[in-house]
Amino acid sequence: MIRFALDFEREKLSTAYGLEMGLLLANDKNKAYVKVENGEIEGFLLVCPHHLYLNGKMIKASEIVVGKYDKEVYDVLLDHLCHQELFAYSKSQLPHFELASCQKEYVLYKNNLPLLNTYGISYEIDPDAMLECYGKYITHFNGYEVYDLKAYKEHLHYLKKMGKKIIIYRRNGFVKGYLAYRDMGDHLYCDEVIYQDSRGLLTMLRHLLNYHQKLKLTLSMKEHLDFLSKDLKYEIKEGYYGHINDYQMFNTLYQSSTKNVSEGLSLAKRPLYLKP
Description:
This protein is an alpha+beta fold. 29% of the residues lie in helices and 35% in strands.
């Protein structure tokens, strides 16, 4: 039997699948599709709805998070989405999904960065100013979440619950950048980096490397650190896979003749910024 998980089942799944899944299941907006046989959950996929600004228009979209893959659950879920939304994406390579984005992962050490005065760095959260900074940064991208203040505060709360710390860089009284990072023991890992100029980015990275030997940093394929050194290496990581749920509706909306995900996501000619 395929249905939405009941409250006690969501609690059971939260315990079984760890912190990140637990936080997603705690959000009532996220729908948990399960296959139950003889009282046991045999398949589990989670649908997390978002509002994305894609190719110059706001659309409804969903991220699919795989708990325990089951084809029957997936087929039901995808059929529902195809009747409700234009686009779906996932970190998992699901059937009929195509690679939508890749990312650069840099590994930085102290000697990779110039010595800088890190004045302006703080750990004091200012959601209003940070949201304004995010708004200025994100317009260089495509396929991004549009937040109001309430939703943005929920996002910051999610980052904290995930065990991430946030540093903010201010210059002349204005927030010019911030980043979220997690201490992985032998290195720091930064996967959300918002900045308005290279000075802000370098100041934040320098601050972290003042206290740690090694840092991993994830950036879009269009962002680069070549200005630091031409020899600086990075690894290309697969980001998200995407699925256009209704090509006829998609092409009508965007007045295009898109035949695949890559074409559909490149209409705006800007790098994709899909985040959970």
